[in-house]
Specification:
The complex is a heterodimer of chains A (about 160) and B (about 425). Chain A is of the alpha/beta class. Chain A has 6 helices and 7 strands; from the N terminus they run E-H-H-E-H-E-H-E-E-E-E-H-H. Chain A has a single domain, classed as Aconitase, domain 4 (Alpha-Beta Barrel), CATH 3.20.19.10. Helices cover about 30% and strands about 20% of the residues of chain A. Chain A has a 7-stranded mixed sheet, covered by helices on one side. By secondary structure, chain B is of the alpha/beta class. In chain B, the strands form 5 sheets. In chain B, strands 4-3-2-5-6 form a 5-stranded parallel sheet, with helices on both faces. Chain B has a 5-stranded parallel sheet with strand order 16-15-14-17-18. In chain B, strands 10-9-8-11 form a 4-stranded parallel sheet. The longest helix of chain B has 16 residues. Chain B is globular. Classes of the chains: A alpha/beta (about 160), B alpha/beta (about 425).
């Protein structure tokens, strides 16, 4: 079980997740410090290690819209967060899968900050509210990359197969 | 059942007679574009080859373009070091389409690609930039990817695991009224179908208005198609596409074109008549929060921005110069202009546009992404308001989460400069 540590609305852009002014930072080891930089309190908690690994952000529709910047996925992956959204913007969800950030598509979920959630197969369980919600599986094209452990590993295997 | 334009592009790029929506395919890539964030792709590319014992080589150095535009000239030693590393990589890997920080061949990637004839109808183009959708204006299937995806393309020359997207047909008819144009059309469309209305789908543009539109205008529409969530925006190629590529981009070789099948399946058809359209404004903090200019006229503006990959082309600068010649930017309002490329800059210089704009009080910056994304020049102060011809107005976009950005056409931006408030460019408003 993991706690919902942040609840955000619809159309959360990559400018909110990883503001453009930090884009000169590219290394996945360095991007996490700027995750949600303009949400000063949440960013402070992350950097103070007050948020345990596996904690959940819940979002509305179109999470990660906007820029293709991969930092938006790598900064969240760096804290090992899990993102549950009604649905995601295309480039963001692809970047997340490529980097191994867990994204869960759950159009009907009901959850608030502080709720305890569990991802059980294709069901999202909200233990606090005593409710269950169906998870929409990722398209097979993306699941193959998740199963390989990310796109670097997937591509490396393809490269070696060509040899 | 016939195929949409994107289905035809993908079928060709996969060497198949046809593909269906939802098929998982691995299309060949004709052009792979990055800017400064190619540094991220480079790091992942090195990671892919690590411990494989295979000589690290990009699949095709002729099909990779690297164009510095986001932070030029470098604003910090960190950026300069990233640019330096990637520049070394370009030399090592013999990447041929490299546009460094140079006045003779530089500019914003989404202007350089068309301008130098790097994009052709039927191409599969990927770019580590969401506005890669721009190149659909030339009949390519062009879409944004992240750095890791680009590293995979550099390695294998294909995009892995692409799902053939469904298509929304957009029929645009009617003649634009004065001071209304492509930017108003795309803002109107985004407002109508919302920021996620085309997520995972392609917007395919048809109708008289599109057929009569210059490539410059088509680039505006395809550029901002991503703001409706679209994977790509595409104008199937026609005479204008060929004219642009031959006359403006200097393409000498034969250009092949094709059209979607008449019986192709579209998930949805959107009809737009532009005959009575008013200038459109996207209000803070969402690109789909679109209103006619009259609804926000009079809003006080601290900074006006004309430029970017959306509206920094010669016709945009011409409009602004014509409106502002002999006038002055209002005291208390700043105006920043950044042309989309150095070719445009030099032409605007020759024609006197830059002179007219700077005499009016505008600051003309070097071509680049500049103020648009708040990483370099033209950041906003707390509680300041910007009116910009750029493409995004998300909270924090122009470098400050406490500021507001309104998006508009070059006509509205220029017409608002002398008054310092959002102004309808049509005589006396309407």
């Amino acid at each position: 079980m993991s706690e919902v540590v942040l609840k955000v609305g619809d159309d959360i852009s990559t400018d909110i997740i990883y503001p453009g002014r930090f884009m000169a930072t590219v290394l996945p080891t360095e991007t996490p410090q700027y995750a949600f930089a303009d949400d000063v309190e949440f960013n402070r908690k992350l950097n103070a290690n007050e948020i345990p690994k596996g904690s959940i952000i819940v979002a509305g529709q179109n999470f990660g819209c906007g820029s293709s910047r991969e930092q938006a996925a790598s900064c969240l992956k760096g804290w090992d967060l899990v993102i549950v959204a009604k649905h995601f913007a295309r480039i963001f969800v692809q970047n997340s899968i490529n980097l191994g950030l867990q994204t869960v598509i759950c159009p009907e979920y009901d959850a608030d900050e502080g709720d305890e959630l569990e991802i059980r197969g294709d069901v999202l369980v909200n233990h606090t509210k005593g409710k269950e919600f169906k998870i929409v599986p990722h398209a097979p094209a993306r699941q193959a990359i998740i199963d390989a452990g990310g796109l670097v590993a997937y591509t490396r295997a393809r490269l070696l197969a060509k040899k | 059942m016939g195929m949409t334009y994107v289905q035809k592009v993908l079928a060709r790029a996969c060497g198949k007679p046809s593909v269906d929506v939802g098929d998982v395919v691995e299309p060949e890539v004709h052009l792979a574009m990055s800017h400064e964030n190619g540094a991220m792709a480079m790091n992942q590319f090195i990671e892919i080859y690590r411990d494989t014992g295979i000589d690290m080589k990009v699949w095709d150095p002729e099909r990779i373009a690297i164009i510095y535009d986001h932070r030029i000239p470098a604003e910090s030693s960190k950026t300069a070091n990233n640019q330096k590393k990637l520049r070394n990589f370009v030399v090592e890997q013999k990447i041929s389409k490299f546009h460094d920080i140079r006045g003779d061949q530089g500019g914003i990637c989404h202007q350089i690609l068309p301008e130098f004839g790097y994009v052709r109808p039927g191409y599969v183009v990927v770019g580590t930039d969401s506005h890669t959708t721009s190149h659909g204006a030339l009949g390519a299937f062009a879409f944004g990817v992240g750095g890791t995806e680009m590293a995979a393309v550099w390695t294998l020359g294909r995009v892995l695991n692409v799902e053939v997207p469904g298509t929304i047909k957009v029929n645009v008819n009617g003649k634009f009224p004065a001071h209304v144009g492509p930017k108003d059309l795309i803002l109107h469309l985004i407002g109508k179908i919302t920021a996620e209305g085309a997520n995972f789908r392609v917007l395919e543009y048809h109708g008289d208005t599109i057929r009569n539109m210059s490539t410059s205008g088509r680039l505006v529409i395809c550029n901002m198609s991503v703001e409706a969530g679209a994977t790509s925006g595409i104008v199937p190629p026609d005479k204008e596409t060929l004219r642009y590529l031959k006359d403006e981009a200097g393409v000498k070789d034969k250009i092949e074109t094709f059209a979607p099948d008449p019986d192709a399946h579209y998930e949805q058809t959107v009809e737009i008549d532009v005959s009575d359209m008013a200038p459109q404004i996207a209000c803070p903090h969402a690109v789909d929060n679109v209103k006619p200019v009259g609804d926000v006229a009079g809003t006080r503006i601290d900074q006006i921005v004309i430029g970017s990959c959306t509206n920094g082309r010669l016709d945009d600068l011409e409009i602004a110069a014509r409106i502002l010649k002999g006038k002055k930017v209002a005291p208390g309002t700043r105006m920043i202009v950044f042309p989309a490329s150095w070719r445009i800059y030099r032409e605007a210089l020759k024609r006197g546009y830059l002179n007219d704009l700077s005499e009016a009080g505008a600051v003309v910056c070097n071509p680049g992404c500049g103020a648009c994304l708040g990483v370099h020049q033209g950041a906003l102060g707390d509680n300041e308001v910007a009116l910009a011809t750029t493409n995004r107005n998300f909270k924090g976009r122009m470098g400050n989460p406490k500021a507001e950005v309104y998006l508009c056409s070059p006509d509205v931006a220029a017409a608002s400069a002398p008054s310092g408030v959002i102004t309808d460019p049509r005589a006396g408003g309407r």
